[in-house]
Specification:
Blueprint lengths: L2 H8 L2 E6 L5 E4 L6 H7 L12 E6 L6 E6 L1 H5 L15 E4 L1
């Protein structure tokens, strides 16, 4: 029974919360990065802490989550571009 696999592919989503124009859950493609996600969510609201964004990613096999740091100000200047990770379902981006 492989119906579960098909459902999983169709329902891959990421979440973005906090100080963005349109927080919520969005469809995820294979190439969605943190910058893409911020754009999809309509960008930042005033006073968003653009240097302190983080991504919460469940650890494989359960048991908590990993917190990945994302400094928007650096990444758009071409610094620390490795922070602009490709998202995996069901990552949650938090914009404080």
């Amino acid at each position: 029974d492989d119906t579960g696999i098909v459902e999983q592919i169709n329902s891959q989503k990421f979440n973005i919360l906090g100080r963005v124009s349109r927080p919520g859950s969005y469809p995820l493609t294979a190439t969605t990065t943190v910058l893409d996600a911020i754009a999809v969510a309509g960008g930042f609201l005033d006073f968003a802490k653009q240097k302190n964004i983080y991504i919460l990613r469940p650890k494989p096999g359960g048991g908590g989550e990993v917190r990945l740091h994302f400094n928007y100000k650096d990444v758009i200047k071409g610094k620390h571009t490795e922070e602009n990770v490709r998202l995996e379902p069901p990552d949650t981006i938090v914009v404080p």
